[in-house]
Design a protein that fits this description.
The chain is an all-alpha fold. 72% of the residues lie in helices and 1% in strands. Strand 1 and strand 2 form a beta hairpin.
Amino acid sequence: MAIMSRYPRVTATLFIVVIVAAGAAMNLRLRHLRESEAYYRWLLAAAVNERLFQDASEDSRDRALFEESVARAEASGMFDNFQWEDDVELEGVSLLGRVARDYQQDRRIWDFARSRHAAGQRREFITLARQQKLMFATDIQYAEAQAGGVNIFNLFFGFRKIAANLIWLEVDRYWHQGNMYRMITLMRTCVALDPQFVEAYLIGAWHLGYNATAQMPDTPWPQRQWHPVYQACLGEKERFYFYAIDFLKDGIRRNPRNYRLYFDLGFAMYKQKLEDYPNAVKYLSEAVRLPHDRWVPRQLFQCQELNGQHEEALAGWQDYVERYPGSMTAVEVAPRFILRNQGLIYEKRAEELRRQAKATDAPARAEQLKAEAEEYWRRARDTWNDLNDPFGEGRKMRMEALDMREEGRYLEAIAILDKARWDTAALWQEFSELIIELKQEAGIPLSVSEKKAVMRESEVGVCPGMPPEERERRLRAAEEIEAKF
């Protein structure tokens, strides 16, 4: 009876031991998954930064840890069958940076992040995150890795989304009160509490880049100051543009698979505000690599045209028509842009052939090049006739002016361009610059407004506080502009 009476106690003890062991194992498993997820998200952020932003300093702990992680990924064999893209934009980009370019490869990065191959780097990541030494691991996603004590993460942990919403209401209240500068700190706190609050990034960047600057005049170049962080000459208004850019970049690092952040960075900031078309194309290209709405690639194609990438824009519009054959854009909008880019390609090719003909010393070769140039010139004119809109009419008048230039009829060419720029606002800047070029070429005095335009152009890019070597480089560029005109 004594032995039998002990069995229930033994069974209960064994049951408790099993439960405790299972709980400990589950706890270890959950801890491993939490740490792996934090490391995985950091890998995506560091990969995006390497390929697109390069914002971390050379001595950044993020950079060093990412390089160690790349080395481990290459040695692990987990990416041996990854197909490298032959793309000049990816020169110098690491294995993980290339893999992260395609969102469909995210599972590969996740498998590596939680694997035994990355155990050492994962532990180092957690240590550095606890010490808050990583630039790309400072948000609430890594709250478990933060040092103990009272801070904003621990204070709101478990209620952070509610707290973020309440703070966002304060942001909105400050906006209506006109307290722009108070908004910035609260917006950053809001997204620190809820890094996946994408709308906060989008609306916050809109406040910074558009609403905050709506009543501000552009800062004259002599009044701008060199900003060492942004490597640009900025006044108060222009600084807000870069605040908005930084805010969207931060959102991209924390949400690298949301196309809207890339779109607003490329379109709203670089295209609309800064007229920086190379960067607009760069970030809009990232937006279309992700699942996106139908209107996103249309802005990419327009920026490619503005950036002189007419072949890419033409191919994009043609592909769009094939993808969405019954849409209004494919029927009414795309055909016009297809003709525009085709005509610009013909013009560019004809002008290149004319320059080659003038440069060659072989008469027979020169005549052949001239004949080819005339054929492309004719195709361009036919294309503008087919387009039959103010843009096409303006391009035809430009072609006529250039033909007169070849014949030495400068005054007539200038008169045609002057009329054309008033008829087509989109071509105003291009035609105004061409008028100055023709006047200088023919020895015709510039008007007062044209002299001021040349002077303003020579001032662009130079401001107080600029490093001497950068100032010298830009002054040389300005001298080249003045010599040209």
